């Protein structure tokens, strides 16, 4: 048994980014992973790339034999091989319109010239490829198996395509067959920050005389990568997909990351690698509602039950956070346990929660004190209207002006207008005047977006975070802790979103209205299980039956030494002290 490998792309290797296809598969088929293991020990088929034809060639002597192009068409490139097994060389060529061709002539067609017999069209120009003015077409053609070849057609247009529109076609053809297309893929351009490459093998792996198709998709996001195979066996009735993939490969990778998460040295990269696996799931699997690859007829790939995989990925993410001492990130990962592919089962979540809780000191919080002061209702991200002073008093930007609540929360008085303390702006505005306005959970971009408004009120480009958006695409925003503003750094906006710090290593004294203590040592944030205070000798989780749902609390601040905290519930100010 032999195998052939080819990384598809244009002849000058432009950085394209593709995806996968689907069809039904009988369960008796061997898994793609087993095929790879077997093929690795076999002799490999050497891919043969097409040669470029002379410019505007309507006649081309390819392999010592002159061939004439179809009417009103010219040759662009071609490859010679014995595709039909009769011992003679056939030609497979890509043709384009001649200079005098009518305006609506197809921009590309694949033609088969057998050694004997008349030439015939093997593949028309894919109808879903953009062909409007301003769209440049790039094509590559490679023999990827003894009887098969792969043609890769991509359009690059000056006007961006609509989200979810395919701009690339990948077709594996057996040109000697009456129905040449074996497997065809529609590909949507990747989002910024991601690349996806395809490795194609099209050889007879089950020894039935027909070339089969094995495709490996590799997604890269920064330094993180994830790989999963797709496999089809060519049958007389059509291509049958191995239904065990890519689910099996995703599960194996999740197990690897689980092991790596246990050691700090390897754990530093686990979160990014888990993210790459989730991104690949989103790209390949129709269940994500955001798949960027479909079959030739527009059908998505169904990846099936991923119950164990999503649990292992969550376990890896939580385990790595704990091994690195990032307790807040472990809690945030638990809060997002239902975000990706399908909810993690309750038993797995409970086991992980127990593990995380063992790393914190749990403190009971008594009934909250309600100072005689109210604040403006929150309408979006902002600096908190609350700020502790070093002596434990609480400043509040209230509806009536700046007030001070004495330590203990029992008495509140206005702050004199001539005092050294001044009210601070609640608008989270950058030095350039841009204001953070909201959080968005997109379908066609991988990361959660921060919506920003320019100083003149016009929308600015959103800021994409490393927090992956839920998949399947949410019909409404998921329940998450309210975002908390920290400031603007040299790298950009710094905040806590969905429980995660956008710049977890940032430090410094807290300015009024941030969730840090006045001395900058402690940070408070909410999660489903309570209020988490980090930065001390050991993380503390504050819980109490008499305080409202932590996800409904916002604008939380903490006093030096974790002696008290304060949050906003609607318009009410809550003073909280651990017992």
Q: Please bin the fraction of helical residues.
A: 10-25%
Count of individual domains: 3
> Strand order, biggest sheet?
4-12-13-14-15-20
Subunit organisation of the chains: single chain
List keywords for this structure.
579 residues; mainly beta; five-stranded antiparallel beta sheet; 37 strands; 14% helix
Give an overview of the whole structure.
With 579 residues, the protein is mainly beta. It folds into three domains: 3-246, no CATH class; 247-284 and 305-359; 364-429 and 480-576, no CATH class. The chain is 14% helix and 35% strand. The protein has seven helices and 37 strands. The strands form ten sheets. Strands 4-12-13-14-15-20 form a six-stranded antiparallel beta sheet, with no helix packed on it. Strands 2-16-17-18-19 form a five-stranded antiparallel beta sheet. Helix 2 (247-260) runs antiparallel to helix 4 and helix 4 runs antiparallel to helix 5. The chain is elongated. The termini are far apart.
Provide a short characterization of the protein structure.
With 579 residues, the chain is mainly beta. It is 14% helix and 35% strand. The relative contact order is 0.10.
């Amino acid at each position: 048994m032999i195998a052939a490998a080819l990384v598809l792309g244009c002849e000058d290797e432009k950085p394209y980014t593709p995806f996968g296809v689907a069809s039904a598969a009988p369960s008796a088929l061997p898994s793609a992973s087993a095929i790879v293991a077997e093929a690795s020990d076999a002799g490999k088929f050497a891919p043969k790339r097409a040669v470029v034809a002379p410019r505007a060639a309507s006649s081309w002597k390819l392999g010592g034999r002159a061939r004439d192009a179809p009417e009103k068409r010219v040759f662009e490139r071609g490859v010679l091989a014995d595709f039909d097994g009769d011992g003679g060389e056939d030609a497979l060529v890509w043709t384009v319109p001649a200079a005098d061709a009518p305006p609506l002539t197809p921009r590309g067609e694949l033609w088969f010239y057998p050694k004997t017999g008349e030439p015939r069209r093997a593949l028309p120009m894919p109808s879903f490829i953009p062909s409007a003015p301003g769209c440049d077409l790039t094509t590559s053609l490679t023999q990827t198996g003894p009887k098969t070849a792969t043609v890769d057609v991509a359009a690059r247009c000056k006007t961006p395509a609509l989200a979810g529109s395919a701009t690339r076609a990948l077709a594996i053809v057996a040109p000697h067959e009456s129905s040449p297309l074996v497997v065809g893929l529609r590909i949507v351009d990747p989002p910024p920050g991601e690349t996806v490459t395809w490795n194609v093998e099209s050889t007879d792996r089950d020894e039935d005389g027909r070339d089969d198709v094995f495709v490996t998709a590799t997604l890269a996001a920064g330094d993180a990568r994830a790989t999963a195979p797709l496999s089809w066996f060519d049958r007389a009735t059509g291509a049958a997909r191995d239904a065990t993939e890519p689910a099996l490969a995703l599960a194996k990778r999740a197990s690897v990351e689980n092991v790596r998460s246990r050691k700090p040295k390897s754990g530093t990269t686990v979160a990014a690698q888990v993210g790459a696996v989730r991104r690949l799931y989103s790209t390949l699997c129709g269940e994500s509602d955001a798949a960027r690859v479909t079959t030739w007829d527009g059908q998505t790939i169904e990846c099936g039950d991923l119950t164990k995989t999503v649990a292992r990925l969550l376990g890896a993410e939580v385990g790595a956070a704990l091994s690195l001492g990032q307790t807040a990130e472990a809690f945030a990962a638990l809060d997002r346990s239902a975000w990706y592919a399908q909810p993690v089962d309750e038993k797995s979540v409970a086991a992980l929660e127990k593990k995380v809780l063992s790393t914190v000191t749990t403190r009971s919080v008594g009934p909250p004190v309600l100072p005689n002061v109210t604040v403006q209702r929150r309408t979006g991200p902002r600096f908190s209207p609350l700020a502790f002073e070093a002596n434990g008093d609480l400043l509040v930007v209230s509806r009536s002006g700046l007030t001070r609540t004495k330590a203990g929360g029992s008495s509140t008085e206005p702050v004199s207008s001539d005092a050294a303390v001044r009210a601070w702006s609640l608008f989270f505005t950058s030095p350039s005047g841009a204001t953070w306005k909201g959080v968005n959970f997109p379908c066609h971009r991988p990361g959660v977006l921060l919506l920003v408004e320019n100083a003149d009120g016009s929308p600015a480009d959103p800021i994409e975070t490393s927090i992956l958006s839920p998949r399947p695409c949410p019909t409404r925003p998921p329940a998450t802790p309210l975002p908390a503003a920290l400031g603007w750094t040299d790298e950009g906006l710094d905040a806590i979103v969905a429980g995660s710090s956008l710049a977890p290593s940032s430090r410094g004294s807290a300015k009024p209205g941030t969730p840090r203590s006045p001395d900058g040592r402690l940070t408070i944030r909410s999660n489903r299980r309570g209020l988490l205070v980090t930065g001390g000798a050991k993380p503390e989780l504050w819980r109490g039956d008499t305080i409202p749902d932590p996800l409904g609390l916002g604008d939380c601040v903490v006093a030096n030494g974790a002696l008290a905290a304060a949050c906003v519930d609607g318009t009410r100010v809550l003073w909280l002290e651990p017992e």
